[in-house]
Amino acid sequence: MLDIAFNPEQSTLQLMGALTIYEVGQLQALINLQQPPLRTLTVDLAAVEEVDTAGVQLLMALRQWLGDALVLINHSTAVIELFDLYQLVPYFGDDIVLSHH
C-alpha cells in the first residue's frame, strides 16, 4: 500500500509504503490530475519501504519529464539498493543521504 502526502502549493510529495507495480497507477493519476501541470516537484522517499522496477520507471519518467526540476530527497534504503542495482545514481544526479528511519 502506498500513502501519498501531496502539497500542491509547495510542489512536494511524500511517499510512504510500497512503490510497486500495484501502486504506481495511483501516483501517476495524482500527478496527471494537477492543473496547471507540475513544473517542479520534490519527492521525499524516506518512508518508501519497498520499490520495484515499476516504481523506478515512474521516477525515471518524472525525471525525463521535469529534468532537473525533479528533486528526490531522503532516499530510503530500499530506493538506494535498487538505484545501486540498476546503476541509476548518475541518471538521477541527486545527493543520496540515508534517512533517519
Automatic annotation (TrEMBL):
Residue span, STAS domain: 1-101
Name the UniProt record assigns to this protein: STAS domain-containing protein
Top-level taxon: Bacteria
InterPro entries listed in its UniProt record: MlaB-like_STAS, MlaB_ABC_Transporter, STAS_dom, STAS_dom_sf
Annotated transmembrane regions: none
Pfam families, alphabetized: STAS_2 (PF13466)
Gene3D superfamilies, per the entry: STAS domain
